[in-house]
Specification:
Order of helices and strands: HHHHHHHEEHEEEEHEEHEEEEEEEE
Strand content: 15-25%
CATH class of the largest domain: Mainly Beta
Number of domains: 2
Number of helices: 10
CATH superfamily of the largest domain: q2cbj1_9rhob like domain
Distance between the termini: 19 Å
Radius of gyration: 20 Å
CATH topology of the largest domain: Jelly Rolls
Largest sheet: 8 strands, antiparallel
Shape: globular
């Protein structure tokens, strides 16, 4: 992944400038005001388990004064002590390039060690990674053997997309990922859901709105795992868009009757409150959705202006442009997440920005 400058948006998807976010990893507490205040002695963890949990809180900005560099250091210390959760977090850190060059080999090594230490999410992820993006999860508990079986070229080979519509561009990818991958993502989101929000055109922030009644959660660095970065790499291989162009990935959840009424995913450049966002991060040019399950009724993704509806099977994806080939907002991309009439609907949502922002 391409490194970004301190004044560019942080690739973690937080919406903050890199120097105010994950860029703090590259500076010492005393030497860089952008890194946040130095931790106090009261923050000192008493065990590797506490260090891993505190490190995750610093890493994700959960604390009021985040210092991600300190969070990474805590996680590294806990991983060196053999803590299973810290090993899984260390694997995640190695699989991104927010804190240094991406190192897949190191990420998979940490993941295998986390699995060996009994970390169930790491075990499930490794079983899915070892068989490629569309294979049935391995049943083996030979964690080192599974680690050796992971092949980046299988994950990052461009998938085959079928054009559903040329204008606006809508493409379908059947069997983009396996049910095992989908189940793993759902498990990462379960228990962390909150009411979904929309952009507030009056403030440029986000707000709850009656037009959107479903729930969601962010797959932040403390929860996304190596598998999410592998999945983003698979999306990048197909879309030919770099990882820094991607917003933080989200998991969307719909109970029966819950909906996201007709809306655009692009940001209206005529709204003054969006100008700072568009200047820093660029237009949201593409939407990539993965259907994580199919045991529900209704719940189609519907484009009313062009009378197109789609509902994928588990592991299928829909990818559509929000702008014209000239980069202008396309009003025909207005769409809705229709409510399920029975069962729960789960989606993986990856919005992609214009990159670099012009």
């Amino acid at each position: 992944m391409t490194r970004t400058g301190g004044d560019e948006p942080c690739p973690c998807g937080s919406g903050r400038k890199r120097k105010h976010c994950c860029g703090g990893r590259e500076a010492s507490p005393a030497g860089d005001s952008h890194a946040g205040p130095a931790p106090t002695q009261g923050d000192a963890p008493s065990s590797p388990q506490d260090a891993a949990r505190l490190g995750a809180r610093y890493l994700t900005g959960e604390l009021k004064a985040p210092y991600p560099g300190y969070g990474v250091s805590l996680i590294e210390q806990a991983a060196a002590a053999g803590d299973a959760e810290a090993l899984d977090l260390a694997a995640t850190i190695s699989s991104c390039s927010l804190f240094g060059p991406r190192n897949w080999d190191q990420a998979f090594d940490f993941l295998a060690r986390a699995a060996q230490a009994g970390h169930e999410p790491a075990q499930t992820a490794l079983r899915a990674l070892a068989v490629g993006p569309t294979g049935a999860p391995a049943e083996s508990a030979d964690w080192n053997g599974l680690r050796k079986a992971v092949r980046l070229e299988h994950w990052f080979a461009p998938a085959t997309a079928t054009t559903l519509r040329t204008s606006p561009r809508i493409q379908i990818v059947e069997n983009f990922v396996s049910k095992g991958v989908c189940d793993w993502i759902i498990d990462r989101a379960r228990g962390r859901l909150s009411r979904a929000t929309i952009y507030d055109k009056d403030t440029g922030g986000v707000t709850e709105d009656g037009r959107r009644t479903n729930s969601q959660c962010d797959l932040d660095l403390a929860h996304c795992g190596v598998l999410t970065f592998m999945l983003r790499g698979r999306i990048a291989a197909l879309t030919q868009r770099p990882d820094p162009a991607m917003e933080i990935a989200k998991v969307l959840h719909y109970q029966p009757g819950e909906t996201f009424a007709v809306h655009y995913d692009y940001l209206d450049p005529n709204e003054p409150s969006y100008q700072a966002e568009l200047s820093m991060r660029g237009q949201r040019t593409d939407t990539f959705l993965i259907y994580l399950n199919d045991d529900f009724e209704g719940g189609e993704t519907h484009f009313p202006n062009i009378d197109v509806s789609y509902r994928g099977k588990t592991g299928d994806a829909i990818w559509f442009a929000n702008v014209t080939p000239r980069g202008e907002p396309d009003e025909d991309t207005i769409h809705a997440g229709l409510p399920p009439t029975a069962g729960e609907k789960w989606l993986f949502s990856q919005w992609i920005r214009q990159y670099p922002a012009r």
